[in-house]
Amino acid sequence: MTLKKELRTQGDFLFKHRSYLPVIIIIAGLAVYIQNEMTSDVLPHQQGEVYKFICLAVALLGLLIRVHAVGHAAKNTSGRNTTVGQVADEVNSTGLYSICRHPLYVGNFFMWLGIAGFTQEPWFIVAFTFMYWVYYERIMYAEEAFLTEKYGDKYTDWASKTPAFIPAFSKWIKPQYSFSWPKIIKQEKTGIMNLFIVIFVFEAIGSYIRNGEILKMESYWWMLAVASVVWYIIIKVLQKTTKFFNV
């Protein structure tokens, strides 16, 4: 098997199973975090809370990038499909796609970089960055091979002047499509809930190690987790009972 074919095969496989990368990050991150908590190798409480809010801000930046990219994307593009493979009814080339070929993965990077930061372990953050690069490089290769086959010069001409991952802000083009809140609420509800649940798990484990009680933490952490779960349930119910999300 040639290297190109092998990268394509690996990329297609990882694309279909890309939901598992966060699980690997969370399990590894929790192991590092637990070790640091048990050896008291963490920041003092007040400094630690400020640091956690910085990590949360990084994660929310990633979510904001995803929201903008998905909200302005064409129908049947920028999806969360993980089993059917690649889907793209057209090439997105405006909005965030005018400055970067893979803005969703830029958003994912910052979301999970924020989570990795909760370990308070520099080497783990570096290791996460390397793992993300190797993992998503193959996914991006497979996506671009698929789009090149489907759209030919239309895709390669745009790709030749648009960076893959690091944005070129000077190339900004106003989004072609208006922003869709129903699409965002429907598609990003799971990501929002997962983000705050994972943070809550970190806080709960840290609280138990330090104080012997799971909920002996700042109240806003568990309140955010509860609110995100309630939000998820409400949207799921509305999806089944209304046509608001049929976009």
Short description:
The protein is an all-alpha fold.
Structural description of this entry:
- The chain has 247 residues and is an all-alpha fold.
- The protein has two domains: 3-179, Four Helix Bundle (Hemerythrin (Met), subunit A), CATH 1.20.120; 183-247.
- It has eight helices and no strands.
What topology does this entry show?
Elements: H1 3-16, H2 20-38, H3 45-71, H4 103-117, H5 122-151, H6 153-160, H7 181-211, H8 219-241
Helix pairs in contact: 1-5, 2-5, 2-7, 3-4, 3-7, 4-5, 7-8
Number of strands: 0
What's the total helix number? 8
What fraction of the residues are assigned to beta strands by DSSP? under 5%
CATH level 3 topology of the largest domain: Four Helix Bundle (Hemerythrin (Met), subunit A)
Mean pLDDT: 87
Which class best fits the helix and strand makeup? mainly alpha
Overall form = globular
Distance between the termini: 41 Å
- Return the CATH architecture of the largest domain: Up-down Bundle
User: What is the level 1 CATH name of the largest domain?
Assistant: Mainly Alpha
Provide the low-confidence segments as ranges.
80-84
The string of secondary-structure elements, in order, is: HHHHHHHH
**What Rg do the Cα atoms give?**
20 Å
The proportion of residues forming helix, as a percent range, comes to 55-70%
Could you give a short account of the major beta sheet? none
Count of discrete structural domains: 2
Task: Write a concise keyword list for the protein shown above.
247 residues; globular; 68% helix; Four Helix Bundle (Hemerythrin (Met), subunit A); mainly alpha; 8 helices; 0% strand
